[in-house]
Amino acid sequence: MRRLKFLFAAVLVAALCAVFCGAGQFEAGAATEEYYLGGMTAGFSLSAGGTEIVGFTEIAGKEGRRKPAEEAGLKIGDTICAVNGMRIKKISDLGAALEVCGGKSVVLLVRRNGDTAEVSVTPVMDEKSGKYKLGVLIRDTLSGIGTVTYIRKGDLRFGALGHAVCDENKSTLDIADQNVYLCSVIGVNKGKRGRAGELRGLFLNDKTIASAETVCDTGLYGTFDAAYDFSDCEVVGAAPLTEATIGTAYIYSTVDGVTPKKYEIAIAKVDVHNGENKNFVVKVTDPRLIEETGGIVQGMSGSPIVQNGKLIGAVTHVFINDPTRGYGIGIENMLGN
């Protein structure tokens, strides 16, 4: 097991990414399909789109100890996307590119705050390892969690999150590891007015529950493991936005351990034509959930919304000024992926 740091804030990343893959309309077949309700938290890893600098370290070379990357003006949070025109996706790509340089100056393509720039750096040979290095601590993947919305009973296709997963530069991220892991929620930072809360949890690395295949502006999609125990999952049909009404509904979320619970909410608004996947305004009314989390928090994105016994959507956002309120996406924008 490893401690999970939550990197995906649903209040920041939805509708700003360009790739669309939602169905956008409720197909006739969807009304007759049956779905296992989700609500369980799932952990996944996405590509950082290069190698992101998370720190600097000294390199012991022939001319003493140096930090070549920092000396060249690079900063924590910068992402190295290419070296001398060679695209960098993984940590190993950066090491290979530096070996090719043979100690000569290299030109790095660096992304910072949405902009890119070229920076010249001369690597230093580490006397201990004999390898050329920049003096950076880097990562090439980002880990986060979301809530599974549904698993289609017929073929075990699943949908989760209900919103895009982007980096701080609003670029859509790619899947780095197809394995999706069950997560255990071990604590909650409660949401407060002006600050989004978050679930705290652990990847259960020995419990792979699904394979991720697609990530886009309506969520994360793939296929669930046939060996998963669905015996405790409710089976429901799905209904389009046109059948959703103002009033009582329910969400299924996991805010402690690995077992989803049912919580009451109120649908305050239905917007069939919203182009940003904000088809519902919802308000948490269940005193248990308000006591445990303060309302909607990061990590709950994807929590299925059920009304009149039908799956109608998923929670996606929280209102910063009122954590008991948030947005949801209509289920027709997720089905079919």
Task: Please write out the topology.
Elements: E1 2-4, H1 10-13, E2 35-37, E3 41-56, E4 59-61, E5 64-66, H2 68-71, E6 79-83, E7 86-87, H3 91-101, E8 106-112, E9 115-121, E10 124-125, E11 132-133, E12 136-152, E13 157-160, E14 175-189, E15 198-216, E16 219-224, E17 235-238, E18 247-253, E19 261-270, E20 280-284, H4 287-293, E21 304-307, E22 310-319, E23 322-330
Parallel strand pairs: 17-22
Antiparallel strand pairs: 1-15, 2-12, 2-17, 3-6, 3-12, 3-14, 4-5, 6-7, 6-8, 8-9, 10-11, 12-13, 13-16, 14-15, 15-16, 18-19, 18-21, 19-20, 20-23, 21-22, 22-23
* Helix percent band: under 10%
Seen as an oligomer or otherwise, the chain set is single chain
Question: What kind of sheet is the major sheet?
Answer: 19 strands, mixed
- Count of runs of 4 or more consecutive helical residues: 4
Poorly predicted regions: 1-23
- Number of DSSP strands? 23
Structural class: mainly beta
3D architecture notes:
With 337 residues, the protein is mainly beta. It folds into two domains: 238 residues, no CATH class; 76 residues, Pdz3 Domain. It contains four helices and 23 strands. A hairpin with a 2-residue loop joins strand 22 and strand 23. It is elongated and about 70 Å long. The two termini are 30 Å apart. The N terminus is likely disordered.
